[in-house]
Design a protein that fits this description.
This protein is of the alpha+beta class. The chain has six helices and eight strands; from the N terminus they run ββαββααββαββαα. Forms oligomers.
């Protein structure tokens, strides 16, 4: 799977459907036939849309966990809570189940935000709050997370 790029806005219709933005739909075209998995985010009040091939890779990792270790079993249960297989319909719409709408606080305006190989789906107000930086210094975070990585000779990282 290629890296997904971009942040896009849309609105929720009365039935809880989101119109997939055309540039995002184009990037996900190879995944449309196989479908997607929609789940709660572990760390944020948003949803994560996994192309099925990415979900299968994640499940390969999860399946390596020993289920006779209680923490592993608890993690698996929480990680997969509310997981739904979803499709993008012929008109390019994604129906978000009511329980996931409630979890994410999606009301009217929505943001699709690329997150490397998946797409985060946010209520717009919650997304804006999460990226505002009020609760962290992004420069410090970037240095801590990426500062010690230097795999290439290009001087970037």
């Amino acid at each position: 799977m290629n890296t997904i790029v971009g942040t896009y806005e849309c609105k929720v219709d009365a039935k809880g459907r989101l119109m997939m933005p055309a540039p995002l739909k184009k990037q996900l075209a190879s995944s449309l036939q196989n479908g997607f998995v929609l789940k709660r985010s572990v760390f944020q009040p948003c949803l994560e849309l996994y192309p099925m091939e990415e979900w299968d890779l994640m499940m390969q990792k999860i399946n390596k966990l020993n289920r006779f270790v209680k923490k592993n079993n608890d993690f698996i249960r929480r990680f997969t809570a509310g997981v739904k297989v979803v499709e993008i319909d012929a008109l390019g719409r994604l129906l978000v189940p009511k329980d996931l709408v409630a979890f994410s606080g999606i009301a009217k305006d929505v943001v699709f935000s690329s997150a490397v190989n998946i797409v985060e789906i946010w209520d717009k107000d919650l997304y804006e709050k999460s990226i505002s930086g009020e609760d962290m210094d992004f420069a410090d975070l970037a240095e801590e997370v990426m500062g010690n990585i230097n795999d290439d000779d290009n001087g970037i990282s």
